[in-house]
Design goal:
317 residues, alpha/beta, Rossmann fold, six-stranded mixed β-sheet, four-stranded antiparallel β-sheet, globular, binds adenosine-5'-diphosphate, binds magnesium ion, AAA+_ATPase, ABC_transporter-like_CS
Length: 317
């Protein structure tokens, strides 16, 4: 668990981070979302003591991070830097081995872990182990950066714009891989991004930042349907329609949907979003049928089932 209390960082004229507080529980992902200059990187760097706060405090599992030397603290924290941050004169394997070496793992163990991670991140170890970063594509460098952060299996992962340097297609692909990576499922993660879609896809909680302050700290659905102020509303405005339809899954409205005929052809699962369902309806002349594995039930729906569900979300509770 990470607890940040009234964290502030001032540089002469600039207040980079102003009175920021949040808690991230074990296994959760907090996304710090905001435009450039809103204080995201500074917040992240204070957590692994690359920057010391002007005031405020940070606790990890109840322990003040100032109570141990930064080098020791950083062994339990994987950090994925903004940009790729790989050492150009180190091979892929050497980049990944940095922390295990510091921890004095033996050679065999380091090699085994490196190959395991490369494999998990869909880079053939035989092909990429001895290659230099300049020989890799952006998506591949990003995977190596992640492998390096994960090498010693730290319980905490801090990621600064991990997909920021990737083209949109690669970005979506790497993001999907990240979501499905078993190693990440138990980790406590703070991820920094300026991308609203990314924040909604990856965050259990989102801290929307502006001018060093957190404007709202809430779940994606709360941010959408109960925005704290005009800034939050405006920040989400452009993508509001898509976000609303992505925020609900068919399973969330399962009880409101009629049961489908036994022989109806299934095209969706209950875990897909209303956005997926909308796309399916748009491409179909018939009502669409979805299947829920857990209850082994089939439901059928049309546009009006979906719009009714969205409208209900927007009504004040
Ligand atoms: P973000 O990561 O959200 O883009 P940063 O945390 O990097 O934002 O920066 C927040 C603010 O603090 C910006 O206005 C930036 O110019 C300022 N800042 C960051 N680092 C320094 C520094 N070392 N000296 C002076 N100002 C800084
Ligand atoms: Mg930044």
């Amino acid at each position: 668990m990470i607890e940040v209390q009234q964290l502030t960082k001032k540089y002469q004229q600039t207040v980079a981070v102003s009175n920021v507080s949040f808690t991230v529980h074990a296994g959760q992902t907090l996304v710090l979302l905001g435009t450039s200059g809103s204080g995201k990187t500074t917040t992240l760097r204070m957590i692994n003591r690359l920057i010391e706060p002007t005031s405020g405090s940070i606790f990890i599992n109840g322990k003040n991070i100032l109570s141990q030397p930064p080098e020791i603290l950083r062994r339990s924290i994987g950090y994925v830097l903004q940009g790729y941050g790989l050492f150009p004169h180190y091979t892929v394997a050497e980049n990944i081995a940095i922390v295990p070496r510091l921890l004095k793992w033996n050679k065999g163990r380091i090699e085994q872990r490196t190959d395991e991670l490369l494999h998990k991140l869909q880079l053939s170890p035989a092909k990429y182990r001895h290659v230099y970063p300049s020989q890799l594509s952006g998506g591949q460098m990003q995977r190596v950066g992640l492998a390096r952060a994960l090498a010693a299996n730290p319980p905490i992962l801090l990621m600064d714009e991990p997909f920021g340097a990737l083209d949109p297609l690669t970005r979506t692909a790497v993001r999907k891989e990240l979501k499905e990576l078993d190693e990440l499922k138990k980790k406590t993660i703070i991820l920094v991004t300026h991308d609203v879609q990314e924040a909604f896809e990856l965050g259990n909680i989102i801290g929307l930042m502006d001018k060093g302050c957190i404007q709202q700290l809430a779940t994606p659905t709360e941010l959408l349907f109960q925005p704290a102020n005009d800034f939050v509303k405006q920040f989400l405005q452009q993508q509001l329609f898509q976000l609303e339809w992505q925020s609900l899954r068919l399973i969330d409205i399962w009880n409101d949907l009629p049961v489908a005929e036994n022989d109806a052809a299934i095209t969706l699962t209950s875990q897909q979003t209303l956005w997926n369902a909308l796309a399916e309806l748009t491409n179909s002349t018939l009502p669409v049928v979805a299947f829920d594995k857990a209850t082994a039930t089939k439901k059928v729906f049309n546009f009006s089932h979906l719009t009714t569900a969205i409208q209900r979300q927007k009504q004040p509770a």
